[in-house]
Amino acid sequence: MNYKTQLLQKIEANTEVVGIIGLGYVGLPLAVNFAEAGVKVIGFDKSEAKVNKINHGENYIKDIRDAVLREVVGKVKLEATTDFTRMKECDALIICVPTPLDKFRKPDMSYIEAACTDIGHYMKPGTFISLESTTYPTTTEDFMLPIIEATSKQNKYWEHKNFSPGSGEISEGQRGDNSDNNDNPTTSSFRHGTHFWLAYSPERVDPGNATFHTRNTPKVLGAMDADGMEIGQALYKKAIDHIYPVSSPRVAEMVKILENTYRLINISLINELALLAGKMDINIWEVIEAAKTKPFGFQAFYPGPGIGGHCIPLDPFYLEHIAKRFDFDLSMIHTAGHINMRMPHYMVIKISTALNRHRKAINGSKILFLGVAYKPNIDDERESPALEIMDMVAKKGGIVSYNDPHIPRVKTNHGATYHSVLLTKEALEEADVVVLTTNHTAFEVDFIQQNARLIVDMRNMIKDASDKVYKL
Ligand SMILES: NC(=O)c1ccc[n+]([C@@H]2O[C@H](COP(=O)([O-])OP(=O)(O)OC[C@H]3O[C@@H](n4cnc5c(N)ncnc54)[C@H](O)[C@@H]3O)[C@@H](O)[C@H]2O)c1
């Protein structure tokens, strides 16, 4: 029996083991979804703290219900480890590691590289591998495949002689039975299509979204060959309701970049129009509400202090990296990125203008920011424009504090650490200006409006006009 048939049989019988590499916002919900479907899951993470938390049933991702995590850990359907040699126990390995930018704003592929190296060293033959991290098109085939093939030359699987035929594994002694597999993996690399299959399936999760979560968000899947697609679909359908197959990993990679770039460009457009509308004394929020009444051809995007999060601000740099290799200039995406990069500067001008009208300067004023998360009702402050605005204001001599019900402590881009203050009547009264940076539903708008002396509202939280409220 070849590896593919054996793996499909395991998936059919629900006896496969799924390894999830990287247990963050993306990896942990996926791990829980597989475990809830009765699949044995091993989560791999470099962070001992996260691994210990999971193994004690302690949840650190808001989109997962504590009781569900406790249940799947209690049933030993999900366990976490820092021992990457245990990849040999897995039939599928799904990579959910970070894809940030390096200090030169270039893709930092070191996390994917590290995961692929571990996979090459420790996977067993017959493993399905899928990447979910956001990246540039061609990553799966041109970046990952060579690393996995090369590192699999030092694969440790065959050193473990205790895989007996009875255990359901194809042991070293059985290798002759595998018609596709007569080479010696101790001296040659594992081969794609024989010993492993590679696919890309972008994670589209929208943290904090009450309607769409991992299971009911359709999943795009692009595999390198038909066998990989068959295995990938059989596996993923246990955790995800709807799988949408595409012809290759690079199509799937481009799908994710398209989705995020679409948002980037539309947010940039509305931010630019908001700035113009401000100068022309036009309320941009009223404009958007009216435009939304058109039942076709218009989708509303809302202005704000800039874009944040792990994906949208970073993805253009990933695309640019690969576009350069094809001698292609992404002028529209450049412009959009540029507009968004300038937004925090405009917001500082807004704060300064508002204070100025009250005969005050940023220098020496107490400035209370409400919300440092990059979007409402989540605990993620990565790339949040609020942090940049706080840094700029502090540099001008502003006395900065913040409240965020979801984030008790932050470190800004310039390395300053702040602790969330209590949102009391006194805190609002004491501030020379209160800046609404994130529209968390926990913020009581009436209470803020009643007690703050001056407000800069970057999220249209305060609907009625008032002398002390300055809007974006
Ligand atoms: N957060 C989102 O909303 C979101 C949405 C869609 C896609 N994505 C993409 O998914 C990927 C993961 O994002 P995230 O938000 O879950 O990141 P995260 O930082 O929350 O989690 C990543 C985890 O990977 C671990 N890790 C790092 N290197 C590792 C390695 N070599 N082996 C094992 N574990 C390792 C980290 O310790 C961390 O726990 C990124 O590419 C991101 O762009 C994120």
By CATH, the superfamily of the largest domain comes out as NAD(P)-binding Rossmann-like Domain
Question: Which oligomeric state applies?
Answer: single chain
Number of strands: 15
Shape: elongated
Distance between the termini: 65 Å
Biggest β-sheet: strands ordered side by side in the sheet: 3-2-1-4-5-6-7-8
The overall pLDDT average reads 91
CATH class of the largest domain, anyone? Alpha Beta
Question: What is the helix tally?
Answer: 14
Question: Are any ligands bound, and if so which?
Answer: nicotinamide-adenine-dinucleotide
- Report the order of strands and helices: HEHEHHEEHEHEEHEHHHHEHEEEHEHEE
Could you please say which CATH topology of the largest domain applies here?
A: Rossmann fold
| Helicity, as a percent range | 25-40%
Helices and strands: which structural class? alpha/beta
> How large a portion of the residues is in β-strands, by DSSP E?
5-15%
The main sheet comes to: 8 strands, mixed
- Unreliable stretches covering 5 or more consecutive residues: 161-184
Question: Nearest-angstrom radius of gyration?
Answer: 25 Å
CATH A-level architecture of the largest domain: 3-Layer(aba) Sandwich
What's the domain count?
2
